[in-house]
């Protein structure tokens, strides 16, 4: 009997094995499609992602300066905690002025133009900071004005982004916030490192390069939502 069973042909498991492999492949494809589907937009895809990238670059550039300016003013001009607190108070008024300007002018000149204006103003500010590092007052004012243009840019950026894909506004704003936070997190490392190892000029001009790239992205790839209607 053992001899008979030993001589019998083996069961053909190949079709079953192939079916199992096809099922597993189908499941993997479905999981991948579901994972990537969140990032797929049904309208204005290129412009939307270009707006997200431009916002993240602007946020990166500003956060580099914001996380490092206290150490800069303290080490170079001897500012203590009380003086740095006063500087932060001054910055707050410049931020408020930028937000008021957005409410007054953005709807009149258009969201994309407002973003471009903010980017160009901050670009000039970053580029000029090394040349204005002459005294504590001049340096503080140069940071404040640059920050004001950034604030004008980023406050205008939110409505520009939200109108890129109105039917998927929640997804778009979530992606925009996440990518901007990535830029800010990176700036938390690069800003202090550049200040300590390369100085104020490298810090400012690196931020200028980032917003210059953001300017090119907006000019080339971002659509004005008002122009589409």
Description:
By secondary structure, this protein is mainly α. It has one domain: Growth Hormone, Chain: A (Up-down Bundle). It is built from eight helices and no strands. The chain has helices at residues 2-7, 14-37, 45-77, 81-109, 111-128, 136-162, 169-197, 200-221. The longest helix has 33 residues, at 45-77. It is globular and about 75 Å long. The model has no long low-confidence stretch (mean pLDDT 85).
List its traits.
Growth Hormone, Chain: A; 82% helix; globular; mainly alpha; 229 residues; single chain; 8 helices
Summarize the structure.
This protein is an all-alpha fold and about 230 residues long.
Task: Please state the CA-atom Rg, rounded to the nearest Å.
Answer: 27 Å
Q: Mean of the pLDDT scores?
A: 85
Helix content: over 70%
> Would you tell me the structural class of the helices and strands?
mainly alpha
CATH class: Mainly Alpha
Shape by Cα distribution: globular
**pLDDT under 50 segments (min length 5)?**
none
């Amino acid at each position: 009997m053992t001899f008979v069973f030993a001589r019998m042909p083996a069961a053909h498991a190949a079709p079953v094995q192939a079916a199992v492999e096809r099922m597993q492949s189908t499941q993997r494809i479905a999981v991948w499609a579901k994972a990537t589907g969140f990032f797929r937009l049904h309208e204005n895809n290129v412009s939307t992602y270009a707006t997200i990238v431009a916002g993240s670059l602007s946020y990166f550039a500003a956060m580099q300066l914001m996380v490092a300016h206290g150490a800069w003013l303290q080490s170079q001009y001897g500012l203590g905690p009380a003086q740095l607190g006063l500087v932060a108070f001054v910055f707050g008024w410049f931020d408020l002025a930028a937000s008021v300007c957005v409410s007054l002018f953005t709807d009149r000149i258009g969201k994309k133009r407002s973003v471009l204006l903010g980017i160009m103003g901050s670009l000039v500010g970053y580029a000029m900071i090394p040349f204005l590092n002459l005294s504590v007052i001049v340096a503080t004012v140069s940071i404040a004005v640059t920050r004001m243009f950034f604030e004008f840019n980023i406050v205008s950026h939110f409505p520009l982004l939200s109108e890129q894909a109105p039917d998927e506004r929640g997804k778009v704003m979530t992606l925009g916030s996440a990518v901007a936070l990535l830029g800010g997190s990176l700036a938390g490392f690069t800003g202090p490192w550049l200040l300590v190892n390369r100085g104020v000029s490298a810090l400012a001009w690196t931020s200028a390069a980032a917003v210059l790239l953001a300017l090119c992205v907006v000019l080339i790839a971002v659509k004005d939502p008002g122009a589409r209607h």
